[in-house]
TrEMBL record:
Record-given protein name: UPF0033 protein YrkI
Domain UPF0033, first and last residues per copy: 7-31
InterPro entries for this protein: TusA-like, TusA-like_sf
One Pfam match: TusA
Xref: Gene3D superfamilies: TusA-like domain
Family of this protein: Belongs to the sulfur carrier protein TusA family.
Domain of life of the organism encoding this protein: Bacteria
Protein's gene: yrkI
Length: 75
């Protein structure tokens, strides 16, 4: 899946992946996609809840080599 912007939040612990995701999302236009990479296991539930509450759409998530990857479409 292609993204308009990629955010590397690996190595950061809560709440920094969410803080950085919000900042990166503010730079995107409606309908654009942000790809987020994180290693904090809490990011899985945190990003899903944040996207929903912010009116964004979590398109896909996967875990590869201990890195969680998320694709979020800006609402």
């Amino acid at each position: 899946m292609s993204a308009d912007k990629v955010l590397d939040a690996t190595g950061l612990s809560c709440p920094m992946p969410i803080v950085r995701t919000k900042k990166a999302m503010d730079e995107l236009k409606t309908g654009e996609i942000l790809e987020v990479h994180a290693t904090d296991k809490g990011a899985k539930s945190d990003l899903a809840a944040w996207a929903k509450s912010g009116g964004h759409e979590l398109l896909k998530e996967l875990e590869k080599d201990s890195v969680l990857k998320f694709w979020i479409k800006k609402g």
